[in-house]
Amino acid sequence: MKKHAQLTIDGILDRKHFESAEIIAGHNGTSRIIKWVHVVEVTKIKNLLKGNELILSTGVAWKDRPATFLSMVNQLIECNAAGICLEIGTYMDVIPEDVIRLADEKQFPIIVFNQEVPFVEITQDLHTNLINQQYMMISELEHYSQSLNKQLLNISSYKDILKFLHEELGVQVIFSFKEQEPCFVPPVVKSQQAKWREAREQKNEEPFKNEHLITSPIYLFDQEYAELTIYDPEHSLNEFETLILDRTSTALAHHLLRHLYVEEKKRVEESKWIDAWLAGERRKEDIFEYLSELDIQHNSHGAVVCIFKLDCLRKNNEIDMTYYKLQFRSFFQQQGFQAFITEKNNMMIFILLNKRSKKTWKSRLSIVVNRMNESDLIKRKNLARSTCGIGKYVEDLEKVSQSFHCAEETIRIQDKVSGCSSYFYEDLHLYRIIAKCRKHIDLDEYISEYLSPVIKYDENYNGKLLETLKVYLSCNGSKKETAKKLYVVRQTLYHRLSKLEQLLGDDFMEPGKRLAIEFMIMSHEFITMNSQLSSKGAAQS
Questions:
Q1: What is the pTM of this model?
Q2: Which of 172, 278, 288, 338 is least surrounded by Cβ atoms within 10 Å, i.e. has the fewest?
Q3: According to the lineage, what is the superkingdom (predicted)?
Q4: How high does pLDDT run on average in the chain?
Q5: How big, in percent rounded to 5, are the helix, strand and coil portions of the chain?
Q6: Helix (H, G, I), strand (E, B), or coil: what is residue 301?
């Protein structure tokens, strides 16, 4: 096993100035690692230490104060100091039994000098040794990184990286993708796997207690994608192993990302098959055979199509969408969806096979859409506008085309209606009816019949009556709530409502007429927005 040399209590006993030193307590703690040396002559040190310091002291601060001395040792133990060296004879002549007992119990080494010693020379000697060790560690770490980078040019599997790490440190290497069984390098029997799991549980409960195991998460697309662990039940792992693990985790992340990128590029070739699926040209038997070829179990609970439209695709055709698709696919997988992706014009189209309960599919997709909109990739490209449309849920995979057409209709409605907050086709209700009616009848005539007096009044007097009518109906006729939403005083509202009664009739809140008016208000918004978009498109062309 390749171990980086570290300075320990055992190691300093053979050095100059320690030839006549004697360990009087904490004999079982002599393997403690020393990272720095401090001279301490005060009684409160707890907030000044970081751990693994060797303390040098004459004991002048607690001379003839055994309780203070005991408190001092307690502080050092709590701070995980490496040990304490005391000069006997100058200020103190004996170590209290309580202190020795505590040090033995906690395996905290107490070293005594029975004569005056030069603390300055001890500090200089040990610090020189520590600095040289740090230099050697950095050199070895750099050599490992360079060797690993060369390996990355030729390896075909992440397991080659795991093997390289094992050969470097000689420890057990464990790697696991999120929610999958771990891979052990070298392979181990089940009883040894159980020991590792037990050590991992202990590490999760007490992160600083188990020094035989170190874990490094591997992040892709701002999510924990996998986990790399090194484990040595016989020896404690130190800072050098931690740094080696960190470098290896970074290399693994790069390799996995490159592998995913290549796989996503291959999937582009499959888009023709997916396009035919969306067009309704694939039978159920063909779909199941296709999934089997991809080694995907077709035990889904149904499917739904999601369209994500990015305006940047229209303006900047050279944008490589592979990373977008990689990240979005990861989002869908985390929420229990198997995603098949294709591109069309300025849209990414996802066929989503639901692997979890049908009851939760909408809430899980809502999480994905929110994360897509908040994605760093989206923000970095400064996309001012993106639209999402989700079709109706189908249980038969052969009917995916129906969900696709509904998703397209959702996108069209969102483009035409300002303030349309839902991206689910199933939640658009009246807007779906309006879109259908628009294709077969002239809604303008009906809108004019019900709303023409109000619209003309607003055009002539800027009266805001149509807005007032819409809010008043949405508040179910509550004057207090309507005034609050419109930010007007009651008297202003009463005046507007009186005018509406003159224009629409005092029966405009009767159920039948009210329903017709609400429908016409939504139709008016739909048609108006559609006209504005058409005019804007004509002007741009």
A1: 0.49
A2: 288
A3: Bacteria
A4: 83
A5: 55, 15, 30
A6: coil
